[in-house]
Write a structure and sequence with these properties.
It contains 29 helices and 26 strands. The chain has 733 residues and is α/β, with parallel strands linked by helices. It is elongated, with a radius of gyration of 30 Å.
């Protein structure tokens, strides 16, 4: 049914445009006077209602509407209602808008959506919002169609220049809707063929393009009448290739000997090898036009009818739709209408509105951070079950498949090869001897995974997923018996001036924000007695049995031995012993008794913010604790009794000998390698891979919101934590 609008989605803009957006404010020729008046009347705090839980699950949905609050459709008063496309939620929104006299907006994915499929929960950076229909429904003019046919009224020389720049960047960066797949350019001698685009069966864009499933059969038959089968190829939709939907052409095409392009190629890699594209209504046809590839349409997609495609849809409904489109347009004009005037952009990481350029920046960064893991499947072993959901993104999902197994065993290599995995990922040092060597000999990649150095708000042992992990293809940072990827980075760099300046800014921000690995109790300083003028020395406890002690110590390998050694080294000092939060919480076993500690220490600290201590001590003594690195960042003298990753570079006073680390590095170089180059970060809210600065900003926001509450995450998290404590008590007898 046609969607009758009671207002305009342009009302959701601030003075006709999203804040911080480079999209143009449309002149009066493209909107009515009444709509312009409504734009000025709608307050910035106007409440909108969404008609589906899926829309509300987009964490940054409000940012697409200039920060206006969005709630579930109910009885509460709202100024507007939004629904999704021609789905039931969109039809419900239309009915409710008419019944209540509200502004109505229809949402759909934008033309540069994400890195990964929406059905794989990749959050969008772009949405389109329409107050006159929706762009893929040719039964009536959409807001995009109205923009296109009125192009002469708003396409200014300045906007033409902006569109040319945007189109050039889209082409050079090879952006697309989902930005997934293998982007392999054609080789010399590769055939260029006509690409027939298959689409998801039952998709609303087929019906909206005045087409039916038999249109695909007609397209295939016409292609075979005019071309040999070896000059054709069929592109399978990503949802179909992922097994999430059915298509139309695969079975028929295979029966006629036509190649099927289902090898996860990017749209640009496909278009590189296309002499032409034939489609019913696919968005790939639009991308082909933007690339200058000839396009033949058999339905009425939004880009048909403007002189940029060979349009062959001939039935009555199609002719009626095409008859409305009487203007000839340039590629830059269509690009400006679709990308700059019609779509809007928001960042799932910062939860703020974006310009088109800003959205490109986020997608390019997101795609780059997915990195080499995007190519091929990963078989992962040794990951606790509760870590699976968050770890998937670090291991390549949703762009690449990740399969979790149980404990790492030698048979895991055969399982990985059976599943056609490209690599094995193992949590920490949990694999049996020889597994890494054999995996590499069998041609598999091998990476070790551990928590990052700014892990989360709350303890991992409290079942809080990590927002930062390290993936090491050489060793792991706390294993001093061999070089890790981090050690290689510290040794070799390169550290240019821009990177070192960035590291200095990051270090200052972490210090100013009192940020540590777990970010517990921000601002809660531990009480310290008066030391009476004595040198204040802090000794940091570590978890007994932890691999960092087993592989990163030299001689002094227990908390008791460390206490004794520090007291002997500093007999007159005021010695403070900081207990490890995992031991204090009972999440790990091995906590020392007070008497054993006070036999050497003057004071015990069991809780409070670790960062608050660094400015009140003279020295910090550790075996291999990360606290030593945090203290270095704050200018504290650090004495190492083991072989931590930050020792041996001339920045610490080391009691052990570091044979592989004879050189000297600056603190900013150490910070750059440790916090910028080595770890991977993902936004804790959206799961999008991001920079350390993005991640720190989100951590600051979560911490300010009180997200470190011990009960956050609900009953399951609490039950798992209590079960772990009970299990440790039983095992301890």
């Amino acid at each position: 049914m046609p969607l009758e609008m009671t207002g305009s989605l342009n009302q959701f803009h601030d003075n006709g445009r999203v804040a911080n957006s480079r999209c143009p404010t449309l002149p009066k020729a493209t909107v009515t006077e009444s709509v312009l008046a409504a734009v000025e009347r709608l307050p910035a705090t106007a409440r909108l209602a969404a008609t589906s839980s899926g829309m509300l699950a987009i964490p940054h949905l409000s940012a697409f509407f200039a920060g206006r609050p969005i709630t579930r459709l109910g009885r509460d008063p709202v100024e507007g209602v939004i629904g999704w496309g021609l789905k039931p939620s969109g039809l419900l929104a239309s009915r409710e808008a008419q019944r209540r006299g509200l502004v109505l907006g229809i949402i759909e994915d934008g033309f540069i959506r994400s890195v990964g499929l929406g059905k794989s929960d990749a959050p969008p950076v772009s949405l389109v919002l329409d107050d006159a229909g929706i762009y893929f429904d040719a039964a009536q003019p959409s807001r995009l169609e109205r923009l296109l046919i009125s192009c002469d009224h708003w396409f200014t020389p300045a906007l033409q220049a902006e569109a040319a720049r945007g189109l050039d960047r889209w082409r050079v960066e090879r952006l697309s809707k989902y930005n997934l797949g293998i982007d392999t350019p054609p080789r010399d001698g590769d055939r260029r063929r006509i690409i027939l685009i298959d689409q998801v069966a039952g998709d609303a864009s087929i019906r909206g393009a005045c087409s039916v499933s038999s249109t695909f059969t007609d397209m295939l038959a016409m292609a075979l009448e005019s071309h040999p089968a070896d000059q054709l190829a069929v592109r399978v939709h990503p949802d179909v290739a992922a097994g999430k939907a059915q298509g139309h052409l695969v079975t028929r095409a295979r029966a006629r000997g036509i190649d099927i392009l289902s090898d996860d190629l990017t749209p640009h890699a496909i278009l590189d090898g296309a002499v032409a594209v034939w489609t019913v209504s696919s968005g790939l046809g639009f991308e082909a036009i933007l690339r200058g590839v000839p396009v033949v349409t058999f339905g009425v997609p939004f880009y048909a009818g403007y002189g940029l495609s060979d349009d062959r849809a001939g039935h009555a409904a199609a002719r009626t739709a095409l008859a409305r489109r009487t203007v000839s347009l340039t590629v830059e004009q269509v690009f400006a209408a679709a990308f700059l005037a019609y779509a809007r952009y928001a960042d799932p990481v910062t939860q703020r509105a974006l310009s088109f350029e800003g959205a490109c920046d986020r997608l390019i960064d997101w795609r780059r951070r997915t990195g080499e893991l995007a190519a091929g499947k990963t078989s992962a072993f040794g990951f606790s079950r509760w870590k699976h959901a968050s770890a998937k993104g670090f291991l390549g999902a949703p762009v690449a498949a990740v399969q979790f197994g149980g404990k790492p065993r030698m048979r895991g290599i055969a399982l990985a090869r059976r599943d056609s995995a490209k690599r094995i990922a193992v949590w920490g040092m949990t694999d049996p001897p020889g597994m890494e060597t054999q995996a590499r000999a069998d041609g598999l990649g091998f990476v070790r995974v551990e928590d990052g150095f700014i892990r989360s708000v709350g303890l991992g042992s409290d079942i809080r997923p990590a927002g930062s992990l390290v993936l090491d293809d050489l060793g792991i940072y706390y294993d001093a018996t061999r070089a890790s990827r981090l050690e290689r980075l510290i040794t070799e760099g390169p550290f240019d001036g821009a990177l070192l300046e960035r590291a200095a800014r990051l270090r200052a921000r972490l210090v100013a924000g009192a940020m540590t690995k777990y970010n517990l109790g921000a601002g809660k300083g531990a009480a310290l007695p008066d030391a009476g003028g004595r040198t204040v020395v802090l000794v940091v406890e570590q978890v007994p049995g932890d691999a960092a002690l087993r592989l990163g110590t030299a001689g002094i390998a227990t908390n008791t031995a460390l206490l004794e050694a520090v007291r002997a080294d500093q007999p007159e000092a005021y010695l403070i012993y900081k207990e490890h939060p995992d031991l204090v919480s009972g999440n790990r076993a091995g906590r020392l008794g007070r008497a054993a500690i006070l036999a050497h220490a003057d004071h015990i600290i069991s809780d409070g913010d670790m960062a608050s201590l660094y400015g009140r001590i003279d020295e910090l003594h550790v075996m291999s604790s990360l606290a030593g690195f945090e203290a270095l960042c704050r200018g504290v003298r650090v004495v190492t009794w083991g072989k931590p990753f930050y020792g041996g570079w001339g920045l610490t006073e080391d009691r052990a000998v570091f044979a592989r680390r004879p050189g000297h590095v600056t603190l900013d170089a150490l910070v750059a390698a440790t916090l910028i180059l080595y770890p991977r970060y993902a936004d804790p809210v959206s799961g999008v891979p991001c920079s350390v600065e993005d991640y720190v900003e989100t951590i600051e926001r979560l911490r300010a919101q009180g997200a470190a509450s011990p009960l956050q995450g609900g009953v399951l998290r609490l039950a798992l934590r209590q079960f772990g404590r009970l299990k440790r008590k039983v095992m301890a007898g």
